[in-house]
Amino acid sequence: MGKPHKHAELIKAWADGAEIQFKFEHLAEWQTLNDVPRWDERIEYRIKPEPEPERSKDTELLANLIRSFGYTTWGQSYELATAILQKVGAK
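Above: the chain sequence. Below: its structure as tokens.
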């Protein structure tokens, strides 16, 4: 058996319904494909990431406070801040 295609995993994900993005070397931003991908080995492809959930100002403030103590990563501090605010009924 030969070497798998450079984009084999992405091709399989696309066939299963994943939304694919591409980027040329000279482009700074990823573009979402609206057609069948060419799967050119000179082009970068990825599965389109899920959008980040919007965070309230309360969540931002509390997450920054939690993070300032140095006990968590940024992602963990947002999760903790969200959980605390949900517990106290804040939005």
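The chain is about 40% helix and 10% strand.
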